[in-house]
Amino acid sequence: MLFLQQAQSKAKAKTKKEAINFSRMVHVEGGRGNTKCDAWGGKMSVTLAAGEGLKELKAHIRKAFGKYPRHTMGSLQLLQEGQAVREAKTEDLVEGARVLCTYTYAPGNPSIGFGGGGRGFRGFGGGGRGFRSGGLFGWL
Known about the structure:
Elements: H1 2-19, E1 24-29, H2 35-40, E2 44-48, H3 54-65, E3 71-80, E4 83-87, E5 98-105
Parallel strand pairs: 1-5
Antiparallel strand pairs: 1-2, 3-4, 3-5
């Protein structure tokens, strides 16, 4: 009985690998980024090479769409009939699959504040806020 379960799990794993063992075209929607992305309406098609998965797809999306200011790319949602069904997995990226990009807000480091830092009076370490950095009169 145990041997039969092991054989079935190996067969299942083999079919997942076979699903990504050839090049295929994946359609991406909901992209955000630079002006080229806006001109395309946030949609594009990506051809993934054999063995490429989610990590490579996200890299293609970032390269094509550019940086979306103050946001990071979240998960890719699998689309079926125009509705996001669930989070996409590598084995879902078959020929003609449609995915939706999701983004999350990433403010950076809000504790830095405005106007400080930079190359101050004391070398390269910042120091752009004190009396000696030119912050008070601009000539000290």
